[in-house]
UniProtKB/TrEMBL annotation:
UniProt KW keywords: Adaptive immunity, Immunity, Immunoglobulin domain, Receptor, Signal, T cell receptor
GO biological process, one term: adaptive immune response
SUPFAM superfamilies: Immunoglobulin
InterPro entries, per the entry: Ig-like_dom, Ig-like_dom_sf, Ig-like_fold, Ig_sub, Ig_V-set, TCR_variable_region
Organism for this UniProt entry: Ursus americanus
Transcription regulation keyword on record: no
Keyword Zinc among record annotations: no
Gene Ontology annotations for the cellular component aspect, listed alphabetically: T cell receptor complex
Classification via PROSITE patterns: IG_LIKE
Highest taxon listed in the record's lineage: Eukaryota
Protein name (database record): Ig-like domain-containing protein
Length: 123
């Protein structure tokens, strides 16, 4: 089966009020070959770059996907489409494998305010 703990918030250092990222809370348990969707929505007054990071057991954080305009991005069978109208960047995979078991984090960089660093906090 597939397990993914996927609850996090991203708050850039020097964040202005109202800039945040929220994703699916809690643990997701799926059978192999099932489809996965982890919802990520954001709130910002600027033009953001959105990221999905993955952390496999006993490994460091790795960048999975990044988008800064309204288009679909894909990597390793995962896809995410940045949609500025709905302010979403949902992570999807059509058929998960045991090797996909990991912690997934959605993060945002507000390019208008020039924020380059921040912290990812699992809640």
């Amino acid at each position: 089966f597939f397990k993914s703990v996927c609850s996090s918030l991203f708050f850039p250092s020097g964040q202005t009020q109202g800039n945040s990222v929220t994703q699916t809370e809690g643990q997701v348990t799926l059978s192999e070959k099932a489809s996965l969707t982890i919802n990520c929505t954001y709130s910002t007054t600027g033009s953001p770059t959105l990221f999905w990071y993955v952390q496999h057991p006993s490994e460091g954080l790795q960048l999975l996907l990044r988008a800064f305009s309204d288009k679909k991005e894909s990597n390793k069978g995962f896809e995410a489409t940045l949609d500025s109208k709905s302010k979403s960047f949902h992570l999807e995979k059509g058929s998960v494998q045991v090797s996909d078991s990991a912690v997934y984090y959605c993060a945002m960089n507000d390019t208008v305010t020039g924020l380059e660093t921040g912290t990812v906090t699992q809640v």
